């Protein structure tokens, strides 16, 4: 099976898509229980939501599902949020804390090592290569990591998640101007709410690649799935009307970030 898909563009913007893939190798699929086979924690339709908002943006999309291995987790297995409920490099449970593997068929350390080598490492090698290619063109690169999650998940957070969740690891992963673009655009989006560095402060991808001192900036956008799905339960159908409304705001964010990069290149 393919590991990732790349669309090379000439823009300084790179869209990372680590969680939209739904491919699961047959031998791994057989080990998932019925709950796991729902693939409920997919970032449903995010690749469609961002499609062509910036025509020349580069996209790097993982084809494999996060239950195979999570491309947005530290390969060393270090928790993103110590002391808080979360899922790991190869999840043992879903976002509700319910097991996803058949009893006795949970991934072993050998399984994890194999999946790191076969899926996680190639995805990040491709992403790193695209960042370097774009930076070589412009002298600057902005990695915008695209995510979504159900708006109500008591296992992970209390209450309702804001619609826009911006993560910059408390400002460490990008120029303040880039963070400001996201904050101001989401605050101005009528009918939506937003937060900066709330429950989601940026995953491993954002924290690993975001090196403003090297002119590589990274920012994560975690969207509540209520903003673009008909329902946050199977079959997780895309809502075109909701999506079109949301896409106008996402386009504003990306367009302004692209302008910032082009204005400050070299």
Written as H for each helix and E for each strand, in order along the chain, the element string is EEHHEHEEHEHEH
Number of strands: 7
What structural category do the secondary elements indicate? alpha/beta
Low-confidence stretches: none
The major pleated sheet works out as:
7 strands, mixed
The coarse silhouette is globular
SS field, number of helical segments:
6
- Assess the beta-strand content as a share of residues: 5-15%
Return the average pLDDT rounded to an integer.
95
Spatially, the strands of the biggest sheet line up as 1-3-2-4-7-5-6
Residue share in helices? 25-40%
> C-alpha Rg, in Å?
18 Å
Plain-language structure description:
This protein is α/β, with parallel strands linked by helices. Helix content is 30%, strand content 15%. The chain contains six helices and seven strands. It has helices spanning 26-29, 46-49, 109-138, 176-187, 204-209, 240-264; strands at residues 4-7, 13-17, 58-62, 141-149, 164-167, 194-196, 216-224. Strands 1-3-2-4-7-5-6 form a seven-stranded mixed β-sheet, with helices on both faces.
């Amino acid at each position: 099976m393919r590991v990732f898909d790349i669309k090379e563009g000439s823009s300084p913007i790179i869209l990372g898509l680590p969680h939209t893939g739904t491919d699961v190798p047959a031998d791994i699929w057989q080990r998932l229980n019925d709950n796991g086979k729902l693939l409920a924690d997919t970032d449903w339709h995010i690749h469609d939501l961002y499609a062509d908002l910036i025509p020349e943006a580069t996209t790097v999309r993982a084809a494999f599902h996060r239950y195979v291995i999570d491309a947005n987790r530290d390969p060393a297995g270090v928790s993103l949020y110590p002391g808080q409920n979360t899922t790991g490099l190869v999840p043992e449970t879903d976002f509700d804390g319910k097991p996803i593997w058949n009893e006795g068929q949970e991934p072993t350390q050998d399984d994890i090592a194999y999946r790191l080598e076969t899926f996680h490492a190639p995805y990040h090698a491709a992403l790193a290569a695209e960042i370097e290619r774009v930076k070589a063109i412009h002298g600057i690169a902005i990695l915008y990591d695209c995510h979504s999650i159900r708006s109500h998940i008591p296992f992970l957070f209390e209450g309702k998640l804001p619609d826009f969740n911006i993560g910059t690891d408390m400002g460490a992963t990008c120029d303040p101007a880039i963070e400001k673009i996201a904050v101001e655009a989401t605050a101005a989006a009528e009918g939506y709410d937003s937060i900066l560095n709330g429950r989601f402060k940026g995953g491993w991808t954002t924290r690993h690649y975001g090196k403003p001192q090297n002119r590589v900036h990274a920012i994560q956008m975690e969207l509540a799935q209520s903003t673009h799905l008909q329902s946050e339960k199977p079959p997780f159908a895309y809502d075109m009307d909701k999506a079109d409304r949301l896409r106008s705001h996402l386009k504003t964010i990306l367009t302004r970030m692209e302008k910032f990069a082009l204005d400050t290149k070299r």
